[in-house]
Write a structure and sequence with these properties.
InterPro entries: DUF1694 (IPR012543), Ribosomal_eL30-like_sf (IPR029064). The protein has 162 residues and is an alpha+beta fold. Helix content is 51%, strand content 13%. The chain folds into 2 domains: 119 residues, Ribosomal protein L30/S12 (60s Ribosomal Protein L30, Chain: A); 40 residues. A 4-stranded mixed β-sheet has the order 1-4-2-3, covered by helices on one side. β2, α4 and β3 form a beta-alpha-beta unit. α3 packs parallel to α4. The chain starts with a helix and ends in a 5-residue tail after the last helix.
Length: 162
């Protein structure tokens, strides 16, 4: 038994402590997917509308922690850092070894424990809400058009013959 303990001690010293799901932690800037409430890609961070959406989400859940990819442009980092400070939310700039092509995430808003949020993409959350409101407007327009045409149709059908 003592020999196994010594080998474990030596392995930890040489290779470091074993990590749980290291690829997942790398992708989500040091946290697990189950803890993520919101995520933005590096390209999404460049768009100003996402800063507003991000602020709305921070107000919904102010207790979580913002993780920002250190490879994001400084100007984009500062936009989101200022929003986090404005909402009294803690943040960390995470330095990654390099900008990995399979890791386009620029920002992660995560809890300290598992929350299992199904939809974490900010652009998907707000594109669905705006498309719903857009489809509701279109439905209302078609209903109004059909209501205005209904009397004309009835007049044509039941037209008095003279």
């Amino acid at each position: 038994m003592a020999e196994k303990d010594i080998q474990d001690y030596l392995d930890k010293g040489m290779y470091g402590a074993p990590q749980i799901k290291p690829d997942e932690q790398r992708k989500y800037l040091g946290t697990f997917r189950e803890r993520v409430f919101l995520a933005l890609t590096i390209n999404e961070m460049k768009e100003q509308k996402h800063v507003k959406y991000f602020e709305q989400e921070l107000k919904k859940q102010p207790d979580y922690h913002v993780l920002i990819n250190g490879n994001v442009d400084m100007e984009d980092q500062l936009n989101f850092i200022s929003v986090a400070q404005k909402c009294n939310c803690s943040f960390t700039v995470v330095e990654t070894k390099q900008q990995e092509p399979d890791n386009p995430l620029g920002l992660v808003y995560a809890a300290d424990e598992a929350i299992n949020q199904e939809m974490i993409s900010l652009s998907e959350k707000y594109s669905k809400s705006t498309s719903k409101s857009h489809s509701m407007v279109e439905t209302e327009k078609t209903e109004k058009v059909s209501e205005s045409r209904a009397p004309l149709l009835l007049k044509r059908i039941f037209k008095k013959e003279e």
